[in-house]
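Continuing the batch. This is chain 6 of the set; chains 1 through 5 are on the previous pages. Same settings as before, nothing changed between runs. Recording input and output for traceability.
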Amino acid sequence: MDPTSPSTRGRNKRGQGERLRRDIIDATLRMLDELRDDEALSLRAVAREVGIAATSVYIHFADRDALVFAALEQCTRDLLRDLEAAEAGGGDAVARLRARLLFLGSWVRDHAGLYKVLHESTINQRMHLAFKQELAVRTTAAVRRCMDEGLAPAGDAAEVALDLRAAVHGAVSMRVNEPAMAWPPLEEQVDRFLVKLVGVRA
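Output for chain 6:
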């Protein structure tokens, strides 16, 4: 048997097309996390990973960019869900915002490849990843809650959140791209960002 041919995956029963689509997306996310580059992905390789013919991938996705877009959209939905769960752990608005940022840091540590594709890959130039905007919207809402509870100075929450996101993304991106550097604990940096950028009490 040709080792490059699809494995013996059973044919999906009627109505299970959505399950196959999700299997393709899940395989794509695993591979992107390992490859760290959307352009290194091939639809044939994804098909082999799932155990289907390459033509079956094209039934669901027109090309590689469409597949990567769908995978990153699913990744972002899952990340948003987990960020909300981390923030819901309790405490005041500052504690919830801090939990949100620290969870993002742990997610990037565990999924550095996906982070690079989501934020640093060329698909960001080829396609408008509109779903990423929800990350900014929810961070802005978290900053606004700090202001509304009197835990941070009143101001333009969107502007403050943009500065905060730039700082946090810079911190996690540098850890991904320069792992050999002696970085301080992310918790310490996040606390400094909250004080200096959001204006919360030390």
